[in-house]
Structures are given as structure tokens and as C-alpha cells.
């Protein structure tokens, strides 16, 4: 479990951008979508989610607006910006390269042997 938490810390912003690439969403829904897509392997608590959302907004990757609800309080809805789409593409590429490299090491043949 500790390993998953460490990996998630470095991936939180990428996960949020990926969810928002489909449609605008509010914080709670973002967290639940990450959980759903990961078959409950990744749980996103408020302590990680909201600081990451603030950082993404500060960097210009997402924007937010308050949405008034018919019943219940207003909620902040986050939308991926054009700059955010570019950042997500960059992060997906970097993740793929990293993932391929790790898989080559942990699943690869020993030195001097064919792969």
C-alpha cells in the first residue's frame, strides 16, 4: 500500500487532467472518477485533491467557475484549458516512456541474454 501511495503522489495531477479531458467536473466527482477508473485501487482524498487542483489552476492547466445548483450549495466546477490539454499530452508521453522503461527492467531478460 505504501508503494501505491508514493506512485499516486507523483501522478495526482496527471490523473486529474485525464479525468477533466473528458468533461468539466467538480472535485468530489473527479475523485470518484479516479476511483472508478482504477477499480478502487486509487483513492483520492481531499488532502491530495484540492491542493493539486489549486496548483493546476495556478499553472493555467485548468480553470474553475462556481455552478449554482437547484438544490444544495454552489460547487466549483473545473475545466481543462488548451494549455492543460497540451500538458496532459506531454505527461501521457512521459508516463508511457517511464512505464516502458520500468517494464523493461522488471520484466526483461538478464544482461547478455536475448529479450
TrEMBL record:
Superkingdom of source: Bacteria
Organism ancestry: Bacteria, Bacillati, Armatimonadota, Armatimonadia, Capsulimonadales
InterPro entries from the UniProt entry: Metal_resp_DNA-bind_regulator, Tscrpt_reg_PadR_N, WH-like_DNA-bd_sf, WH_DNA-bd_sf
Protein name: PadR family transcriptional regulator
Matching SUPFAM superfamilies: Winged helix' DNA-binding domain (SSF46785)
